[in-house]
Amino acid sequence: MLRHEFQPGRLVAGAVLTLAAVLYAGDAGGAWETPWFVMIPVVTGGLCLAGAVASLAGRIRRRRVSSAPGPDTPA
């Protein structure tokens, strides 16, 4: 039995914020030079993508639940 449902929007948001953290850590450690303005499109674009993925997953989940046979419907 599953403990919780899979939420792909949160997975995308976590991956994007981890990418931002890696970019900052690489810049702070001297591995590469990351301009400050790179983080704005990375974070905002990633959060917008995560929102779109979450919305799409919610629509798919609602469609599957509404089309599933209920307890009154014979299988």
Explain what you see:
The chain has 75 residues and is mainly alpha-helical. It has one domain (6-64). Helices cover 68% and strands 0% of the residues. The chain contains two helices and no strands. Helix 1 (8-29) runs antiparallel to helix 2 (39-67). The two termini are 22 Å apart.
Task: Give a quick rundown of the structure.
This protein is an all-alpha fold. The chain has one domain. The chain has helices spanning 8-29, 39-67.
Please describe the structure with a list of short key phrases separated by commas or semicolons.
single chain, 75 residues, mainly alpha, 68% helix, membrane, transmembrane helix, transmembrane
Percentage of residues assigned to helices = 55-70%
Low-confidence stretches: none
What would you call the shape? elongated
Terminal Cα separation, in Å? 22 Å
**DSSP strand content:** under 5%
What is the averaged pLDDT score? 90
Structure annotation, total helices: 2
Integer count of domains: 1
Q: How many beta strands in the DSSP annotation?
A: 0
- Helix-strand pattern, N to C? HH
Rg of Cα set? 19 Å
Main sheet record: none
**Class by SSE composition:** mainly alpha
What is the element layout, followed by pairings?
Elements (H helix, E strand, L loop, with lengths): L7 H22 L9 H29 L8
